[in-house]
Design a protein that fits this description.
2 domains, ten-stranded mixed beta sheet, 422 residues, 12 helices, Adenylosuccinate Synthetase, Chain A, domain 3, alpha/beta, four-stranded mixed beta sheet, Adenylosuccinate Synthetase, subunit A, domain 2
Length: 422
């Protein structure tokens, strides 16, 4: 077994798209329950098992392994996406065992409309969202006017909440965003239909997970996005709308933080980000396209090209600190196998000419930061078995810099292409 502990958090240590789905799927083999603690269907996970590829957005990655899969209160749920994924998984011969927290919030059609219209209106100042309604759904949650999953259990309450929400949202859509308003009857009818299918999946996630832990079962917690997209600790404002860091696993599911035993960070052997925002180690020239094609760096949800950069140890050191990462899984090491030399960012050079190994606390310093690189030897050979000496040296350098052990190394897309170092 890789990790013989009851409660493990898997957290992305970069800007998302680190390969968390593969690591969760791998560790789910030894788990009893897999939980998604934050995010919505903007978080695409690709899982490859033998010759089959599964692309999922809303359902926890453990569903592919047939595990009890939980969607926590910290998530926002698009019922159309969720039910569509469950149907697709069933059609492919799986039997998804899913429980959704009644406290999770619903993504409503006006959330998508506002998200899309807002990004268009911002123009060059756009955030670069996936336009899936995630931000507006979390905004309504914070404003205490959101509609929760448990509201589908009572047709009268559901209709009343839709009516109240539309009275305000339609004004915004028409007068601010110049978008057609929504019809109450059409929306109510559509969501009442979803309600009939959602009811069997709604449960008390906090109680379920607490009982599993008390019974000594292995529980795995996964986030949707990466550390640098965290609403509080990420590269604001180019972030997601929820807390992505490991501490939110407890909040998003409804257990005490003392129940968490181990935190595994997932990072690529290089780094990518989608959307707008500063990116110190972004690769210039044709090597960016080379990494993108070798790594298949296109968004699972949107198909957008991911921006590609060399490994950033300053940002990764920050992720270790804010998450309390106890070990690291380094993915996609195989993508670097065609390079003779590999730049690795070990420090930032700031505007005043000073250099730092610590992530800047002020956004203006980060926006202007220049990477200071050291170059490591490449290995120029496929990673089919044991790691070549130069590849091991690359991994060892990351360990020394971060002072955190690397326990798993991903050497290919398939579930089996992983080297366990410990």
């Amino acid at each position: 077994m890789f990790f013989d502990v009851p409660a493990t958090v898997i957290v992305g240590a970069q800007w998302g798209d680190e390969g968390k789905g593969k690591i969760v799927d791998l560790l789910a083999q030894e788990s009893d329950v897999v939980c998604r603690y934050q995010g919505g269907p903007n978080a695409g996970h690709t899982i490859i098992v033998d010759d089959e590829t599964f692309k999922i957005r809303q359902v926890p990655s453990g569903v592919v392994s047939g595990k009890l899969s939980v969607i926590g209160a910290g998530c926002v749920v698009d019922p159309e996406v969720l039910l569509g994924e469950l149907d697709q998984l069933t059609e492919r011969g799986l039997e998804p065992n899913v429980v959704v927290s009644g406290n999770a919030h619903l993504i409503m059609p006006w959330h998508l409309a506002i998200d899309q219209a807002s990004e268009r209106r911002l123009g060059k100042l756009k955030i670069g969202t996936t336009r899936r309604g995630i931000g507006p759904a979390y905004a309504d949650k914070a404003s205490r006017i959101g509609i929760r999953i448990q509201d589908v259990l009572d047709a009268k309450i559901l209709r009343q909440k839709i009516e109240v929400a539309l009275a305000e949202k339609n004004i915004w859509l028409e007068r601010v965003y110049d978008v057609e308003p929504f019809d109450l009857e059409a929306v109510a009818s559509r969501y009442e239909g979803y309600a009939q299918r959602l009811r069997p999946y709604v449960g008390d996630v906090s109680l379920l997970v607490d009982r599993a832990l008390r019974a000594g079962k292995d529980v795995l917690f996964e986030g949707g996005q990466g550390t640098l997209l965290d609403l509080d600790h990420g590269t604001y404002p180019f972030v997601t709308s929820s807390a992505t860091v490991a501490a939110n696993a407890a909040t998003g599911i409804g257990i005490g933080p003392n129940r968490i035993d181990r935190i595994i960070g997932v990072a690529k052997a290089y780094v990518t980000r989608v959307g707008e925002g500063p990116f110190p180690t972004e690769i210039a020239g044709p090597d960016q396209e080379r990494v993108r094609e070798l790594g298949g760096e296109y968004g699972t949800v949107t198909g957008r090209e991911r921006r590609c950069g060399w490994l950033d140890l300053v940002a990764l050191r920050y992720a270790v600190r804010v998450n309390g990462i106890t070990s690291l899984a380094l993915t996609k090491l195989d993508v670097l196998s065609t390079f003779d030399r590999l730049p690795v960012c070990v420090r930032y050079r700031l505007r005043d000419g000073t250099e730092t190994e610590d992530f800047p606390a002020h956004q203006s310093d980060f926006h202007a930061a220049e990477p200071v690189y050291e170059h490591l030897a490449g290995w120029r050979q496929p990673l089919d078995g044991d790691l070549p000496e130069a590849a091991r040296a690359y991994v060892a350098r990351v360990e020394r810099e971060l002072e955190v052990e690397i326990s798993l190394v991903g050497t290919g897309a398939d579930r089996k292409r992983v080297v366990a170092l410990r």
